Amino acid sequence: MKKSLFVLLALAFCLSACAPAASGNKETFNNTVENAQTAETGAAETAAFPVGHLRVVNYRESTADAVYNTVFAWQEEDAPVLQLLQVDLTTARRSCLFSIEAPLQESSSVVPYENSICVFANDSMYQVPQNGGEARVVPLRGNFMPDYADEYSAYDFDYTYPDSHKKGVRLNLATGEFTLLELPDQTQSIYAVGEDRFLLMRLITDVPLPDSRNWEQYEAVCQNATAEYDWYDPATGELETIWQTPYYGIQQPDGSKKRYSLLGMAGDRLYFDWFAGDGTIGGTESCAADGTDWQALPGQPGNERSTWTFTQNGSLRWLMGGSEGSLWIYDLADGQVYEMPHITGTNGWPELFVGQDQVMVAVGTEPYVVSNFAFISTEDYLAGSTDWTPVVPCTGTS
Questions:
Q1: What is the pTM of this model?
Q2: Is residue 363 classed exposed, middle or buried when 0-12, 13-18 and 19+ CB atoms within 10 A define those classes?
Q3: Residue 373 belongs to what H/E stretch?
Q4: How many CB atoms lie within 10 A of CB 294?
Q5: Helix (H, G, I), strand (E, B), or coil: what is residue 14?
Q6: How far is Cα 190 from Cα 56, in angstroms, rounded to an integer?
Q7: Which ranges in the chain belong to alpha helices (H)?
Q8: Per-residue pLDDT, 162
Q9: Which of 49, 93, 126, 214 is deepest in the core (most CB within 10 A)?
Q10: Which residues contact 135 (CB under 8 A, 6 or more apart)?
Q11: How confident is the model at residue 14 (pLDDT cuts 50, 70, 90)?
Q12: Exposed, middle or buried: residue 215 (CB in 10 Å: 0-12, 13-18, 19+)?
């Protein structure tokens, strides 16, 4: 029996994005916060800092010339080595740019910074030159796994108990110093959408939220809560409210409720999927950055939920939906819907926008296994071409 697309995607995901979630290790995060708090009396930063184009840190990161990620490599009976891999976008050839042989605490995300690639491991930041060479090693006050980054910094946030409060730290990529970030009370979600501010969704309630581990009490308070979307400047703490809506949905004339889920931002507009209170899928709508001028998207995203999103330089670029054999892509750059019935989880599934206006796609030699990746221009991909360039593997990597 043929497996569903969701099974295919799960397999592809395991191969392409198996690094732990950035905030998955609560003990690690708390240690980092405690160390940063201790350092505040000394060298830790307290003044406002520059903020660039904020974006989510992906398993793979692209510069204009190459794609980077880390893997563990096992050689015979030796301990695993963390390798920084580079794929040249001109030649599609993969090489090992740097190896860390010290004992490892966990796998590492990577963040491009100026002419280097930052790798986080062993309570340190390794800044590896993009053209190869010796890394600059910056000791950190604790292990660090960033969720977000911009041109100057990397950020990590975590949800803390029992106060149902998100806290964060900002790492200065030039100095290795931490800054503690205090988010507004009852912040539920944090979004990096390519702007110089984070977008927050937080709950406004009549009484303070109880410990979320007391689920019945927590849910009782949420029933009458308001979801508020705010711009949040991490450098100053300044908050600007965009839009408020009932957390459990806007009452409709037929008695149903309409709930919104943020997808991202493109240009000067925010994009939301919406669905009924019973989970029935509605479609996609957008509004201006100030929460006005609501519009439904035409075509498939206007009446189907956008199951997958793809960002470019932090900004939303593609909405993707449908099922195997009837997949579609809505390109926000031109407002067109592209039918992609030939794409499956192991045959051209888009993984990442990369430099030189290309898309990195998954390819496989078996029905349900991603065995390699390839590059193709964005224009050719949307035109239905499968004439992509496979990545040439290097030896000695896992």
A1: 0.84
A2: middle
A3: strand 372-377
A4: 12
A5: helix
A6: 10
A7: 5-16, 26-39, 215-222, 300-303, 378-382
A8: 63
A9: 126
A10: 98, 116, 119, 126, 127, 128, 129
A11: very low
A12: exposed
